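Hi Y.,

Following your request, here is the sequence exactly as I used it, all 629 residues.
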Amino acid sequence: MKTSIATVSISGNLREKLEAIAAAGFDGIEIFEQDFIAYDGSPRDVGQMIRDHGLDITLFQPFRDFEGLPEPLRSKAFDRAERKFDLMQELGTDLVLICSSVHPQSLGGIDRAAADFHALGERAKARGLRVGYEALAWGRHINDHRDAWEIVRRADHENVGLILDSFHTLGRKLSPESIRSIPGDKIFFVQLADAPLIEMDLLYWSRHFRNMPGEGDLDVTGFMRAVMAAGYKGPISLEIFNDQFRGANTKQVAEDGYRSLVALMDDVRRAEPTLAVDLPAIPKRVAAKGVSFVEFASRGEEARSLEKVLTTLGFSKRANHRNKTLALWQQGDIRIVLNEETEGHAGHAFNARGTTVCDVGLMVASADDVIERAVATGAKPFVQPVGAGELAIPAIRGLSGSVLHFIDESSALANVWDVEFEQVETETAPSAGLTRIDHLAQTMSYEDMLSWTLFYSAIFDVRKSPMVDVIDPDGLVRSQVIESRDGLLRITLNGADTHRTLAGRFLSESFGASVQHIALATDDIFDTAKRLEGTGFEALPISANYYDDLAARFDFPPGLLERMKAANVLYDRDEPGEFFQLYSRTMFGGLFFEVLQRQSGYVGYGGPNAPFRIAAQKRVLRPKGVPLD
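Below is the corresponding structure, written out as tokens. Let me know if you'd prefer a different format.
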């Protein structure tokens, strides 16, 4: 089964697109007419350039407003088709997409359209070409794949077949189950796109908001299950119209596209094991069991400052690495690794960004399975030289220069802290009662959010929340949660549109670092707050107005509101339970820690508090009376 992508799906000129598509692993392209016309070269040159990149031209598109036209428009349409046939033969492709007509003078009638396609099929056959018919969701007379199939069926020509597009079916909320009854050899081509569920005009929705399978809300897996059950054996191709993608990194969007197809077809295979999915089998999505460690790259005075912060949070230095300048700081099940190496990934990360989170270690069910699936979906392995007595811990490169290492309990990897580190005899700082990492918050540009969401959801067994807007005094930040089904791994993805927001400022000052915020859990936030008072921890001061508003919104037991106010603790409540949180001040370009307590099954992240927390952080960042640029 070949993988393909429409050239309209990514940015750049045609040569840049081909380089990115080939590098991502695709077998072919749908060449969009605009890309061909804009290129300064003959059709034969274009076809050869595509093949030189190791790609096939799986489809030429689009050909519009063909069927059901009155004379003389009908004759003109056939003349236009002949010229496109000439072009296709020079390019070296045999299939053209004809989308259902939106022409204001087009006439209805299944038989009329079928007769037109039979006649066109005869012309295509004489040239060794094929014609595929697709129902546009906004077609004038034909906007349903079932009607398009009836036209193809009645046309009864071996060179005329059906083209299916998941958006045109699912966007109209049509069931794809009827596709199962279509003969597989009459489905000539399948185009795939996902989209967020938005109530808007179908044409505008399609032209601006499509995204990769797995990035939206449509049941693309169910659509492909029906297609494969019909016996389809042709290419699976992406046709994505998206404003963000048109301005995004060409290479990254192509990689996302390939990742989405591999993950989608693996889901199809697992949902219907009897279907013949002609793509290599890969391990299923792996369960992530939480964050094993967070590694900071730091050096010199900044490293000493970070050590002081960790001490005030109740962490103690427990061990040093046997071969490298790495120190392990721990509290409860939370491990913070402080890496002061001048070479390797950490050294480069510090040189580029200053003190930053350079690596995250995840505890997983099987590290080997994670690596195999991650690489199969387009992730790049990360490898550094392994010294004497060190373990080769599997790792991949994430996005924005991030690295993920994987540790499991079924192999020697679980012993890394004993194998690679030596315990140190130092005075142990009083614990603050912190138990585990509740979640990590990763910050990125808004245009990269879909990539990050797809990256995690294609590899791990996680669910994603709806995207929400977080109000910053100077703009909007979009936020989405990726979490394992048992809640052991939680990652919030925060997309910044402008450098004026706190998230955008962090991106700018850290030169694109990813982890901005580490949330640490406690079983009793007031006990923790009391312990932190004696360590020199500086809590983020919260406005008295916030607590006045809380008193109006919620009923509290006597004294609770006063305790929260005294400790700068924020509060939220949902149907299952309550949520308490307090924050450190920002450091190192905008990084900060959160201490939180989930009570009685609270499942959120304190979203209603975010605007007040951000405002408080911005007040601390600038001198009194000085506006933020």
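Residues 623-629 have pLDDT under 50 and may be disordered.

Thanks again,
Q.
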